């Protein structure tokens, strides 16, 4: 490979890396602009100004100048990043991500799987629920174990999509069953 070909390949590789850095910087800045401008009409104005700033330096050819401008742009982006950006609720860090924390140690009123029961027991879990005749006492297999008993109220929540049973219960400290 000749020196000229190696130089050209190095130049083209550097330009490709610069284009990628500019693309990433523009996308990040555009997304961060949406965090600052909460209304779309304000965002569109800011997005046009941002695009104009990138377009003014589009004609540059010197690789060192381009690297310096990219570094300045990244520094300015990091300086003006939003302190509390919008995060999709179900994404890590969002408002709904793991919003049901584990219960504290030593909480005697907690039933294993209670968070699942509060959301509603799916119909497939009905196989594990055995109602004992003569009262509201029930014995549940699976998560609660065969020997533990609990009192509860069964409420039916019917919808067009699914049927759920919500079991509101408290574990009895003794193994005494209601008659």
From TrEMBL:
Locations listed in the record: Mitochondrion inner membrane
Renumbered residue ranges of the record's region Disordered: 92-113
Superkingdom field: Eukaryota
Keywords (A to Z) from UniProt: Acetylation, Electron transport, Membrane, Mitochondrion, Mitochondrion inner membrane, Respiratory chain, Transport
Gene Ontology CC annotation, any one: mitochondrial inner membrane
GO biological process, one term: mitochondrial electron transport, NADH to ubiquinone
Membrane topology summary: Peripheral membrane protein
Keyword match Cell membrane: no
Alphabetized InterPro entries for the sequence: Complex1_LYR_NDUFB9_LYRM3, NDUFB9
Annotated family: Belongs to the complex I LYR family.
Protein name stated in the entry: NADH dehydrogenase [ubiquinone] 1 beta subcomplex subunit 9
